[in-house]
Structure formats: structure tokens, C-alpha cells
Hints:
Elements: E1 6-7, E2 11-12, E3 41-43, E4 46-52, E5 59-69, E6 72-78, E7 84-89, E8 101-107, E9 111-121, E10 124-130, H1 133-141, E11 144-150, E12 158-162, H2 166-183, H3 208-217, E13 224-225, E14 240-244, E15 247-255, H4 263-277, E16 281-286, E17 290-292, E18 296-307, E19 310-320, E20 324-332, H5 337-355
Antiparallel strand pairs: 1-2, 3-4, 4-5, 5-6, 6-7, 7-10, 8-9, 8-11, 9-10, 11-12, 13-14, 14-15, 15-20, 16-18, 17-18, 18-19, 19-20
Amino acid sequence: MNVVRSISGGLLAGSALALVAAVPASGLLASAVEAQEAFAINASGWEGGAYAEPGSDNFSHCGISRDITEDLTVVFSLNPRRNLNVGFLRPSWSMAEGTEADVTLDVDGSLSRDIGALPASPNLLIVPLGRDADLVEALKLGRTMNAEINHPDVEDGSISVPLTGTMVGLNGLEDCIDTALEMGVADASAPETPQEVPGIDPSAPMDRQTLAELLRAAGFEEIRFAPEEQVPEDELELNHVWQVGPVVGGLHQVPRGGPEVEIDAFGDAYVDVLAGRCPGALETEVSETHIFDNEYALRYDLVECTADEGAAYVALLFTLDDYHYSAFFHEGDPENRGVAEEATLRIDQVIRSLAGFDTAERVDEEAGDGEAAFGEGELPEEAEEPPAASESETDESEAGDSGSGDSGTGSSGAEEVDPQ
């Protein structure tokens, strides 16, 4: 699981709950580990076994491949964390390094997925499937997988793959991983080795383009970002700030650092930062922490700051993926408390859906009256539209004039952005 390295709509994320997908170690078509007959897979034309990391004898993953036509080879790979990938190899392709593709996979017209993908080489495209149980089941039982690949360097991206033998082949991958774990040559708890693609650093914080895709996947049609140079440098340590309707959103990310799941410590520390910015009384409502596979986590908090100037509500989502602890939040005045909660819960649901987790329950509470009451902060003079927005998503409103005064969390300068 890696936010989704793929976001619905087909953009590769810099971290969203590891959802976004796990690309195994490079060397997908490397030579199989020798002298390991226990790993051998041969089923209806699908052949493969265990594969080593490039330049070493360390176990990387189990893989199978099959020549579909003279110009197309399809590969499946499964790593010790049970993340599945499919690869399409065409000698005629010449994809530029680090470029992204939008891929739609359809199995028998009954199940479809939109997934972001990266080329592992000029003629090999890796599509991360993660741990999507419904998709894996469809691949095992289905007759045909159709792929539509949208990439600037691919002219004909329509591919049809017969799924004969995939039941035995994919089960063989699972048995191969079981054998590797039993023999002690694989470690399911070790961090995944990302696909080595020039220009792409999976441990880097989420970029604005990726965040925009995540927000759009959550159903936000109009998103306005504060210019990067005007995002305040303060104790909130925000990577991005945006406005959706009447509420202000922010994202804070820090490196994961180790295998421990410390989502509560991360969340509590960030709430303490908000408490230090509240000039009045702070109340926090903490939901149950959800931990998945003993390595990923989600937590939802609702924070209320009440002061003489009024009140503000902040709905926070704390997440832990392969690379980052993240804090997503939306802030609104009492009148827009429900909007802030809904906005944050939508992100929660997208992440859960992409990762194959249970859908989050929504919080439904009454909103009051008042104004934002967190500490002051520098406000951006203008807001920027998210990159690559469609015409329907283009923000036609203009930013308001600069000013001073209370600005909610002081994170974005929401008061300086006129959504009308």
C-alpha cells in the first residue's frame, strides 16, 4: 500500500496512505533466483518464480509473465506485502523517463479501475494494483482484461489480455510469497523498495498536482491554492494550503522514519500545536484510531476553539502510509462546521477506498454561530488554481485584497480569497 500512489483519475501521488500503490523493486523482468525449484511457476503460458533485487541476491518479489502477441508481454508481480502489480511490455514503445500514464483496467465489463502508472523503462509500464481483493478475484475468474493506456508517448494504448490460466498463475504468486516467507528469504515487515524511476522520489512530500487530484477524487469541483511562496512558515509546518467553498484546508507531512505505528503521538502533538494558537478554550473530540495490517493508520479529530472573537472548528484527518505521517484539515466558522467536517471526511473516504479499507462513518453535528478564532498569520495576496484543472473545474473567482486580522489557523489566508 503506498496514497495511493495512484489516485482515482490516474495521478501518481507522493503519499496518501500508501494507497496509492506499491511498485515493487526494479528488475521486474530480472532473472529468477536460481536453484529454487520451490518457487517455480508454470501455468497456461504464465511462467516465472522468485526474483532478486538488481545487483544482489536479496529477495525482491515473485513474478510471472506471458507473451500475448509478438509485440506485447504482460507480467504480474507480487511483493512480500502482498501488493500486486501488472506490467505491459512493448518493444515498440518509447516512453520518456518519469512521465505518468492514466490507465483504465476493465475485466469482462463488470469491474473497472482507473489507476495511475509510471514507466519502469521506455517500453515497460508498471500499473500498481495494490491489495484490491475484488480486482484480484476478477482477474482470477475473468475471461478478458482490457486496458486503455493514456500516455503522451503511446499512440495506441488499447490492450486486450486473455485471462486464461490466471487463477493458477496468481495463486502461484501467492504460494511463491508464502514459500519465501517460510524459508526466511523474504520479510513482509521490511519497507518496500520503490520502483527506481528517474525524477520520482516516493518519499518526497505530496506535490500540488497530486493533492489537487486527491481533492478532486473526493468530489471537490473548485479548489484554490495559496501560492507556495505565501504559505506561512510557522509551527503548523504546512506543505499546502487551499480553499474549498467557505472553508480553508491544509496539509502537513513529516517522514515516517520507522516501522512503528505512532499515529496517536503524531495526532496529539499536532492538536497541541493548534491548542497553542487558540486564544481561548480548546475542546477536542477524538475518534477511534484505525490501524490496518499493523503498519498503516487513520484517525479523525474535531477541534473547537472558542474565544472572545468567536469560534472556529477544525476537522482533522491523520494518516500513516509507507513514507509519511500526514495531517489533512479543513477549518470553518461555526456556520460552516458541517462543511469542514464533510470536506475532511471525503478525503478519509477516498483514502480508505483506494487502500481497500472500510468506509468511514460520517460525523453529523449541529453548527453554531461565530467567527474563526485561531491565531493570526500572514495572508496570501492571491490564490492560485490547481494545475491541470478542466474547464468545469477552473476557478473563475479572484482573490481578494490583502489585509490583516484573525485568519483561522493562520494557515492559508482564507479571508484573503473571495470564493464568490
